[in-house]
Design brief:
Strand content: 15-25%
Distance between the termini: 30 Å
Oligomer: single chain
Strand order of the largest sheet: 1-2
Largest sheet: 2 strands, antiparallel
Number of strands: 4
Radius of gyration: 14 Å
Structural class: alpha+beta
Length: 93
């Protein structure tokens, strides 16, 4: 039931259903770390990183796709502004 789509030139959107907040945060961070570990033999000095923004929708909330996407984009901007190669999420202290 998960969905991965290319959202923009270099942006991707992952929608996960029926997972708790911590599981989603952990999976986002795992994906970010796996991207960071990518090495290309023919370009050894190349560093590949990802900035990740996580937004949540609770079952009891009224669903609003635009707000969900907006909140994810806000978190992504925080990751980039915070030095990139980070995962940020709603409610992070």
């Amino acid at each position: 039931h998960d969905l991965l789509v290319r959202w923009g030139g270099d942006e991707f959107l992952i929608i996960e259903r029926n997972l708790g907040r911590q599981t989603v945060i952990d999976e986002a961070e795992m994906i970010r770390k796996e991207i960071e570990e990518i090495k290309l033999d023919n370009i050894p000095d190349l560093s590949i990183t990802a900035s990740v923004g996580v937004s949540f929708y609770e079952k009891n909330d009224e669903f609003d796709l635009n707000s969900l996407l907006y909140n994810a984009d806000v978190q992504l901007s925080k990751s980039k502004a915070g030095g990139k190669n980070k995962t940020t999420y709603e409610g992070e202290i």
